[in-house]
Amino acid sequence: METSAFAGVFLFRTTGIALFWWPIMLSKLSIQNYAIIHELEIDFSAQLNILTGETGAGKSIIIGALGLILGQRAESSVLLNKEKKCVIEGIFRNEQVHAQVIEFLKSNELDINDEVVVRREIAPSGKSRAFINDTPVNLGQLNQLSNLLVDLHQQFDTLEIGESDFQREVLDALAGNASLLKQYRQIFNQLQSSKTNLETLKHQKEQFDKEFDYNQFQFNELDEAGLQENELEETETELKLLSNAEGIKKALAKTYYELEESEQPVTRQLKSLCSQLQAFASLHPHLPELVKRIESAYIELQDIAEETDRLHNDINYDAQTIDKMNERLSLGYKLLKKHGVKTTNELLVIRDELQQKLQAVLNIDEEIKQAEIKYVQLLQEAESIAAKISEARKGQVKPLEQKVDAMLRQVGMPNARLKVEVGKGTLNATGFDNVEFLFDANRSNQFQPLRKVASGGELSRLMLCIKSLVAQSIDLPTLIFDEIDTGISGEAAKQVGIIMKQLATARQVICITHQPQIAGKADAHFFVFKNVRNNAITTGVRRLNTDERINAIAQMLSGEKPTAAALENAKEMVLQ
Description:
The chain has 576 residues and is an alpha+beta fold. It has a domain at 231-342. It is 54% helix and 18% strand. The protein has 18 helices and 15 strands. Strands 1-12-13-4-14-15 form a six-stranded mixed sheet, with helices on both faces. Strands 3-2-5-6-7-8 form a six-stranded antiparallel sheet. Helix 5 (178-225) packs antiparallel against helix 11 and helix 7 (245-261) packs antiparallel against helix 9 (287-314). The radius of gyration is 47 Å and the shape is elongated.
C-alpha cells in the first residue's frame, strides 16, 4: 500500500462482518523511530476517526507506517535514528474472526487470541522482521494474512477504481452475485480441468499416431518371434548338452560297461563279496552291519547302471536340431541387444507394453469423444450461469449510474457523470462480461475510461460515493481516507463528512482531512503536530476532547486565533 501524491482512499483491513460477525478493527497503532516519528501511540475508535494537523506534521507518514505492518517493503532510510531499530505494531481486535483467518493462524502455528498483534521491526542494517502474535513470520505470510482479511468480502482500493476487476466487483456486490459466482467458479474450475484433460488426450493421440507404425513394427517383430518364458536361457542350456552329446554318450557307455559288462563287473564283484562275508556274519557282531552296507551299495550301483544306460539311449546328436537351436538363439540374442535387455522375460515385458500402447491407440478415440461430451456439457452449464450473472450485473447499471451521479453532485461535482458499459467477452473465472466505468467530468458527453480522465481528487470522491452505495449491499472493511477533501470545501465537504459518518456506523473509518466540515463528524478526533526534540522535529499525536475539538476546528475555519463566530460555528459542527 502506498500513499498517493494526490488525495487517495485506502483500504487496509476487511472486517469479516456478516449478519452476526463483529469486525476485526485496528484498536491500537504504535510507531517508534519511523521517518519523523520518534514515538507515538494511537487508540482508534471503532467508528469515525479523524486526523487533522498542519501540512507536513506527519499525518500521511502515519499511514505509511501502517502500510509496513501490512506487508509493504521497507528500507533503512525510514529510520529517524539510524542507530536504533524501527518498530511498528498494530493491534487488531479479534472478537469473532472469520474462519479463513482462524485457519491461517492454525496452519501457520500462530496463537489464536482475542487480538491479532502484527509487528514489524526494521534494523539499522535494513533487515526487516515481521511477527504475528509474537511469532516470527516471513513477508509472504504477512501479506497472506493481510490479503485474507482484505479479501473476505471484496477488495476495494482507489488505485483499482480504474481497473475492470474492481468495476465488475462493484456490480457483483450491488447485484448480490456472491452465491451465483461461487456456483459458477466451481463449474468453471471443472471446465478448465475438463479442457486440460481433453487437450492432454489429444496430445497423447498425436504422439500415439506418430509412434504407431514404429510400435507396431516392434510388436510384430517380438510377437512373431513367439518367445516363451525363459526360452532363451533353457535353449542355451540344452544346446550345450547336444553340442557335447558324443562325449557324454561315450562316458556313459564306459560307465555302464565297467558296472555291468566288463570281465569283472563292479556289481558282480560286490555281490560276490557280500556272499563271502554273509557266511561268517553270525561269528562277528559287526559283520551283519557291514554285509548290509555292501548290499545297499550293490543295489545303488545296479540303479546307477540302469540310469546310465537309459541316459545313453536318450542322448542323440542331431545336427538339424542343433542348427534350429542356433537359429533360435541368434534371433533371441539380436532382440536382446536391440532392446538393451538380458533375459527372455524382459523381452516379453516389452512386447506386452507395446501391445498396451497399440491398444491405447484404439481406445483413445473413445476417450476423446467422452471428454468432448463432458467439456461441452460443462461449457453450456458455465455459460448458462454466466448469463444469469451478466443479467444481474446489467440490472444494476442504471441504478448505479443514477445514484453515483446524484452523490457526485452532493460532494461538489455537479457536472460529473458516470457511465457503465457491460460488454460480452470470452469466458473466464468471473463470467464473460467486460465491465468499463466511463467518466465525464464536465457534461461534455465525451465519456472516457476513468483511468484516463479522472483526477486524484475526483477518483477519491467517486470512490467514496461507490463505497457508500456498496456498503448497503455488503460490509466493507476498515477504510482509510487520506486527504479525500482535495479540491472541495463548504457544502461539498460537509456532504463528504455526512457520507463518511454514515459509513462509520457499521465499520471503522480513519480519515486524514483539512476540512472542518469533515472533522466535525468525528467520533474520535486526533491532532497530529510537530515537536522539537533534541533540536530535531518529530511528530506527535493526541486525541482531542470536546473543547479541544471545537478550538481545532475553529482554527481550521479562521486561523490560529479563531474568532468568536468561528468558535460558535465549530461548536455547532461538533455538537450537532
